[in-house]
Each structure stands twice: as C-alpha cells, then as structure tokens.
Write a structure and sequence with these properties.
Layout: E1 3-7, H1 11-23, E2 27-31, H2 34-43, E3 48-51, H3 60-70, E4 77-81, E5 96-100, H4 106-120, E6 131-132, E7 139-140
Parallel strand pairs: 1-2, 1-3, 3-4, 4-5
Antiparallel strand pairs: 6-7
C-alpha cells in the first residue's frame, strides 16, 4: 500500500482529502503545520507528499522551499494551493505537480494516482527485458 503525507492546515479539507485518498486504497498521514510535516518527513518518508502552501507557521514560499529541501528529489510532491502565483517558484528538475484547489477532487486524485504509478514503473521489467512505457501503457522492447 502506498503512503501519502498530506500537509493541510484546514481540518475540514484535511479530513475530506484523507477520506478520499483512503477510499483509493492509500495510507494517509497528516500534518497541519510545517513543523509537524518536517517531523513526519524525518520519521518516515512517504511515497508522495501533498502540500498546501499557506500554513499557520510558514509563508507560502518558505513552505515550498522547506518541503523540497526535506523531501528527496526522487519523491513526487503535489502542491495543492488556492493560489496560482507560486507555480513559478518550483525549481527545475523536481517532480512537482501544481494543482489549484477545487471542490472537485478529480485532478488531485488523478495526479496522485499517476505519480505513484510512475514511481512504480522503473521496478517493472518484463521477462524479455523491455520496459513499460508510460505514454501507451504497454510493453515495448
């Protein structure tokens, strides 16, 4: 089972996201502050991190920088923010998906599923030595 660290300070949204992610078969740990998130990340690395940038103990730009410093570059991060203006602050070369918050969770859930599937693909190898392509989802080589 894949694990998600959900960093969201709004308790109602945190519960909604947690329930929706759990319904998709994911284990979910939560943090409501940047301090809690850093503690969780140091204790155990999840398969993916979902982060709201506006937290009670951190400015949005600091939240993203801190999370990206703590999370290894091979782990995907989903920024789930109500503000589009921080999209340009994502450093090149990082696996970050930026989603604008919405009452429709389809985009968020799809991004999480896609990123977790991409993480699993490098370990998948058919007996004949080919690779599974992500663009068409079939074996080649």
């Amino acid at each position: 089972m894949s694990e998600v660290l959900l960093i969201e300070d709004n308790p109602h949204l945190q519960l909604l996201y947690q329930l929706e992610l759990m319904a998709k078969g994911l284990a979910v740990r939560t943090a409501g502050t940047l301090a809690q998130a850093k503690k969780e990340l140091r204790a155990h690395l999840p398969g993916i991190v979902i982060v709201d940038l506006h937290l009670p103990d951190s400015a949005a730009s600091d939240t993203l920088a801190t999370v990206l410093d703590v999370v290894p570059s091979h782990l995907p991060v989903v920024v789930n923010s109500a503000y589009d203006r921080y999209r340009t602050t994502i450093p090149a070369g990082r696996k970050v998906v930026y989603i604008l918050k919405s009452s429709d969770l389809t985009e968020l859930l799809s991004a999480v599923a896609r990123l977790l599937a991409e993480r699993a693909l490098p370990a998948c190898r058919p007996a004949h030595g080919g690779v599974l392509t992500t663009s068409r989802g079939h074996w080649t080589g």
